[in-house]
Amino acid sequence: MMNGDDLYTQSHIGYYRAVWRADLHAHYVTYGTLDDLKGLKVLIIPMCLTLPEHVAQRVAEFVRAGGILIAEARTGLFDQRGYTQPNLPAYDLQEVVGAVEQEAIYSDPENRPLFNNPANESWPDPLCNGPEIVFDKPCVAKVRARAFLVPLTPRSARPIAHCLGRCLAVQNIYGQGTAYYVGTYLGLALAQEDAGAMSIMEGLLSHHVEPEIRGKNLRPRLMDAGDQALLAVFNESRRESRTEDIRLPKSYASAYEVYTRQALPLNGRSLRMTVEPDSVCVVHLTSGQPS
Prior knowledge:
Number of domains: 2
Structural class: alpha+beta
Shape: globular
Number of strands: 18
Oligomer: single chain
């Protein structure tokens, strides 16, 4: 209905980027693979405009059993037949997030009246111009609304963000798990490199998940096989080399760069890495004595 799926695609890219920069592994889940959530700690639902009832029930089971849910505005707007739902989020998710949506308002920093507006002025009502949403939990940060601004009416949930006197995000304890619901398309803000949106997601993720290995300017990923492991360290910068001491989760006896087969010095559990722009280094780590 929007003449393309670009917004949907960008939302997924934004959330994936946030997970990547939190040094966590992303695992994509579809409606057909919801029965296999073993080991999953956080479930993110980006721009989910269509939602079958059995999927909402499975998400509710995941949270009730101790999972963490992060979802955003207009979840389940259409059922599987394409009919609009009277209340959002749809089905069991109202109880899971502990809130219901009020009327959705089209709102974005780029929103402008299309006609009789030669100076490209913004709308007189600030609600239409992507106003700032102020978060106070789990971190203090601000993000402007993207695409839609959807005030929420909390029921059992606790408000964690406000905008112009309205509740725009909630946190709710459901069973043994926790649900977060944001009344705008946070994924679009993430895709547009909004620093406030990234800070919010980093705060949510770090509050519930501890990565096995962390980087500051480099993005490390560890594939551990017990007595040996592969460490891939990525440099996202396209212009400059970056050097960083990577703290390993345990001690190793030796390390060498896979492509050059050059030995790298280990300082206890710390490994100094220099990675060229827009490149990756892969290191083979072994627990036994080097051969």
